[in-house]
């Protein structure tokens, strides 16, 4: 141990660092709480189309999934749906758009039965919906336990999802880009996430290194 540094002083320094870590963690928790529901899992991420499409999802305390999808455009529509086999036809989708003629609603639920402009589903359960354009980025948001009558598999193996975008002004036009993926909504940490050590642990490690020199 470094000469002149007493055991009592070391313990006091360690306690101070741990208090700083606890205060920092409490502040972080308070700053990330949702207005009505705190997430029970870290946020998951999915990107597609060379990084142009960005989707995030979070499971809330009530088991619903909060979804946000963004794409760089000012006019067009974005769609995300549940699919058994990755096909558009037969899927259950949320579609939202701006600057698009003929769209039944700014954001709504659809059962896709053919490669035609769909009609709104009679089953409407999504909440906290929004569609907006800021700085050239269109962003759709919604919270759901079901989409067009189809339940999300939050506690099991997850769902196969489809996603599509169309940039233009006509709702009846087929998507320009589309893809599919499998999402485990309750996955604790997505593979694309990077976890940083809390500030207190970093400082504590540095302090121990200094003391042991």
UniProtKB/TrEMBL annotation:
Region forming the signal peptide: 1-27
Record keywords: Signal
One Pfam family in the UniProt entry: DOMON
Name of the protein: DOMON domain-containing protein
InterPro entries: DOH_DOMON (IPR045266), DOMON_domain (IPR005018)
Segments forming domain DOMON: 51-168
Source organism per UniProt: Hondaea fermentalgiana
């Amino acid at each position: 141990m470094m000469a002149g540094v007493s055991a009592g002083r070391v313990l006091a320094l360690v306690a101070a660092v741990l208090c700083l870590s606890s205060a920092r963690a409490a502040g972080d928790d308070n700053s990330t709480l949702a207005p009505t529901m705190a997430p029970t899992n870290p946020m998951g991420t999915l990107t597609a189309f060379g990084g142009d499409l960005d989707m995030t999802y979070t499971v809330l305390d009530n088991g619903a999934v909060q979804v946000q999808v963004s794409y760089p455009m000012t006019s067009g529509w974005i769609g995300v749906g549940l699919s058994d086999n990755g096909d558009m036809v037969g899927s259950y989708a949320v579609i939202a758009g701006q600057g698009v003629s003929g769209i039944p609603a700014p954001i709504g639920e659809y059962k896709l039965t053919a490669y035609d402009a769909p009609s709104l589903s009679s089953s409407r359960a999504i909440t906290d919906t929004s569609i907006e354009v800021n700085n050239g980025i269109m962003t759709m948001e919604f919270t759901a336990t079901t989409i067009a009558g189809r339940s999300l598999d939050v506690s099991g193996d997850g769902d196969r999802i489809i996603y599509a975008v169309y940039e233009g002004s006509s709702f009846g036009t087929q998507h320009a880009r589309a893809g599919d993926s499998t999402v485990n909504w309750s996955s604790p940490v997505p593979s694309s996430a990077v976890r940083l050590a809390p500030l207190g642990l970093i400082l504590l490690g540095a302090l121990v290194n200094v003391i042991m020199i």
